[in-house]
Amino acid sequence: MVRIGFTLPQMGDLAHYPREVARFAQQAEQLGADSLWVGDRLLAPVDPTVGYGGGDTIPAAFHALLDPFVLLSIAAVSTERVRLGTNVLNAPWYPPALLARSLTSIDLVSGGRLVLGFGVGWSPEEYVAAGVPMAERGARLDECLDALDAYWSQNPVEYQGRHWTIPATYADLKPVQRPRPPIYLGGYSPAAMGRAARRADGWLPVVRPGYGTPWEFNAAQINGPVDQLRSRAVEHGRDPAQLDLILRVYPTEEATVDQIVDALTGAERHTPVEHAFVDLMEVGQDIDHALELVGHILTRARNA
Question: Locate the Luciferase-like domain: which residues (predicted)?
Answer without folding.
Answer: 16-264
